[in-house]
Amino acid sequence: MQKKEIAIFSGSFNPIHAGHLMLASYICSFTCIDEVWLVVSPHNPLKEADDLLDDDHRLEMVRSALLPFDNLKASDVEFRLPRPSYTIDTLDHLVSHHPDKHFTLVIGADNWNQLPLWKEYERLLHSYPMLIYPRAGEEVVIPEGLSEGIRLVDAPMIEISSTFIRRSIREGRDMRAFVPERAYEQILLNGWYR
Q: How far apart are CA 1 and CA 14, in angstroms?
């Protein structure tokens, strides 16, 4: 039996926004990926944790935002792993717990260009396929020896950031068009990011 192709798209999703959904949907529709798992990260070791909404609140927002999508799933796998969470550890854990699935990492061009800062990045490069999505101002160069497992996807470039959304909500702006409806309802109901 052929293994199901799963793409791992990790992030703080603080909050999840339309750009995240568009990219995940694009990957399912235009690549060989069957499902995209949006892995809610407790804390990215390369980012400050000060402005991070509670882990369970962010997971709740992602789950509610993904309800209309059959092939997009929310994952809290990193909540049960040692912190800070590292991508290589997450992927190793997923592979050992889901032998019936084949995992591909989804990263932005900005993260691709920072990969040497990541834990065990060389093993990551040689152990897991990657899909790189374009980011403004970031050039992607894939070394020749890695071109089989790593590729740039021609996804639309969506320049929406969670930082922009949080700031706009604090300023009292209507961000309905930028945040999935169910997640936005939770933000308003709970007064998050005010």
A: 37
Determine how β-strand 35-40 pairs with β-strand 150-152: unpaired
Band (pLDDT 50/70/90 cuts) for residue 148 is confident
Which domains does the chain possess?
4-159 (3.40.50.620)
Closest C-alpha to 5, from 112, 131, 100, 96:
100
Cβ burial of 140 (10 Å; 0-12, 13-18, 19+) is middle
Smallest CA-to-CA distance from 188 within 36, 64, 11 is with 64
Query: Which is higher by pLDDT, 15 or 143?
Result: 15
Residue 77: both structure tokens together: 């796998």
User: How many other C-beta atoms are found inside a 10 Å radius of the C-beta of residue 158?
Assistant: 18
Tokens 């021609």 belong to which residue? 154
Q: How far apart are CA 161 and CA 20, in angstroms?
A: 9
Strands 72-75 and 101-108: unpaired
Six-digit token pair at 164?
């922009």
- CA nearest to 111, candidates 46, 16, 40, 37: 46
